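Narrative progress, year one. The postdoctoral researcher (J.K.) led the effort to move from monomer predictions toward full complexes, under supervision of the PI. The following entry was the first complex the group processed end to end, covering 588 residues in total.
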Amino acid sequence: MIQRLVFRNLFHRPVRTGLTVLAVAVEVAMIVMMVGVAEGLLQESLRRTRGVGADILIRPYISGATISTADISAKLPDLLVERFPDISHTLGVTLHTPGDLQTITGVDWDELEAMSGGVVLFEGRPYEAPYEAVVDELYARQRDLSVGDGIELMGHDFEITGVSETGKMSRVFIPLETMAELQGWQGRYSLLYLKLDDSSKVRGIIEEIRARLPDRNVSSVEDFLATVTTDVRQMSTQYTNIIIGIAVVIGFIVVMLAMYTAILERIREIGILKAIGASKRLVGTIVMRETLVVSALGILVGYGLSLAGRELVALKYPLIPVLIIPHWLAIAAGLTIAGSIAGASYPAWKAASADPCEVLSYE
Amino acid sequence: MQKSPIIEVRDLKKVYRLGSIDVPALRGVTLDVAEGEFLAVLGPSGSGKSTLFHIVGGMLAPTSGTVRIAGLAMSELSDAQRTEMRKTTIGFVFQRFNLLQTLSAEENIRIAQHIAGTAGRDGGHLEHVIRILGIAHRLRHKPHALSGGEQQRVAIARAIVNKPRILLADEPTGNLDSENSQAVLDTLTALNRELGQTVLMITHNPEAAKYCANRVLQMRDGRIV
């Protein structure tokens, strides 16, 4: 009977209930999407690095997520191959990250294909001339580019000659020599990838290279990815925590206002319930149950919004992958319910404390 | 040995404070209501009869004096105990019916049983009450679809469904036309005469008071006169 009263109360004011459900849903979707974008970007970045197919990565000691420098000598690969015959492939690349944070990679296309086991081109061909470029399919889709189109990179016009599969090193590729010419990086690389015939020798070779190149950061690709994962998660955790905090506070305020308004509007009904013997606890429970029903509906709608949001982002912004992470669905639900219960506490207390005589005296 | 009254009110005073002004609503009311009696308290607006109703019903604390319901002093009861008393010992009927608008007539009656914990184990009392009040054909309707008289009969059903020892009625015909007023008074009279229900009715209508009460007390300016 009490459950029936709870549902009737909620459906008695469908617009207010609907708006509250929507606010809770937005809170859930904000949390799920925020974490989903952070994790999606990270996983996509890791996938592209793994897609190179290398075992070892040599890079400068730098901090930050992007590299726009090249101080590894182009002679190093030959010296390493000579010293370590287990190295089957080397791949030196140069990286430049302009203002839009979309890294441009200078790489010899044939060497990239050799190391990665081949890069599928959905359209066109690899670059053959200096000011030609290959972009991956998501980049092409977001910028609405296709083979033959022009694109401005580093203040110069490039012609797109191919659209590649995604998940192989980078989204924008240009010839190594062109990057060197534009940046003044002749004879130098930003990063050097090594691939071994026998991957069980990775640790030993890394130790030896470290001993010979103490000013270089030498690591296995897997260790590098683990480090990146930890660093990026540490950074994104602070950011996502702020967003999550804001979402929970908004949800708290919305639920508090909605339930407080409902209590004021139904104060007479509460007085009636108390006059016929409803305890403070029962009255408070009714308010809390209404809150939980609204929260549960909001969570379900929020899940739906998250899925719809993921599809919308994929359509509108293909470069931003959104990962819906199952355990974050549960965390978002938990945070939402906790915030809603906190928000409903004052209205519930107010309702439970209502004086039936005072309330019913408004004749 | 004479049985003690079910309602004992002694030297009851209530003063409302409005800003810096004290407004006395009750100036020393003393009355008894015997079990099975139908007492009407008659008085004009402002005579203090509604204040008396709320204090006897345990919804308002007096400034001084005592109220004993079934031998228990209301002032000695905790808030939870007074709530328990409203649930089991006292049934209320209000001038404005005070039905829950989102529930049907039947649900309005059943929720009182639910709150009292008697739902489903009343031995057919609910059906009996519904039959006595003649509302069986209107049970599925919401309050807004019922006439004033029907709403008040539903409110009476809700008030007595838990077999309270006392029925308190505050101007039960105040919002009704003469035909519906008569029907409600007939119902209250029948409950008192046929079921032995103790009734304390507050009214400003002398004819209504005389029609159904065993005894009528007149109130004026916060006193029984």
